[in-house]
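Morning. Coffee machine broken again, so started the prediction first thing and wrote up yesterday's gels while waiting. Chain of 187 residues, entered below exactly as on the submission form.
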Amino acid sequence: MNSIPEIKKNMESKMDQSIAAFKNNLTKIRTGRANPGLLDTVHVDYYGSMLPISQVANVALLDARTISVQPWEKGMGAKIEKAIRDSDLGLNPASMGDLIRVPMPPMSEERRKEMTKLVRHEGEAAKIAVRNLRRDANEHVKKLVKDKEASEDDQKRSEADIQKLTDKHIAEIDKMVAGKEQEIMAV
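Came back before lunch.
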C-alpha cells in the first residue's frame, strides 16, 4: 500500500466484492416465488462428473411458482430429478415427458420467519466484512502516518472518506435485506 487513494480504492473494491457475495447468498435463500437461481447449488452426475444442473439442462420459469428444467440429453431427466429431490431445498420435481416441473411449495408463516432470520444473519455477516475492511484501511493509513508518508490531516480526511464509503455499503446491505424480507413475507 503506497498511497491513501490506493488504500481507499482497494477497500472500496473489496467492499463491492462483499456486497456481490452477499447478493449471491441472497439468491440462494428461498422465498415463496420460483427463482431459477435456486437450483444453482444442485449438482447432477454427468458421466462421472458432478455438474451444476444449468450445465446439463435449460432452467427457466414456467410461472411465478414453478421452475422448468429441460434436459439437453434424453437419459438425464431421471438423474436431474433425483438430484433435485435429494438436495436440501425441500423441492419435489415431477417429470412430464422430457420436461421436469419443479413447483415451489408454499411457505408456512414459521418458515417465512426462519428465512427472514437467515436473511438478517447473512446481512449482518456482510456488514461485519465491510467493517473489517474499514478497520484494515484505517490501519494502513495510520501506518503511512507513522512512517511519515502521510500527514495527520491526510489521515483525518481519509478516515472521513473511508467512513462515508463504509456507510454507503452498509446502507446498500440494509436495503437488500429489507427487499429480501419483503419478498419472503409477500404471500
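The mean pLDDT is 87. Going to sketch it on the whiteboard this afternoon.
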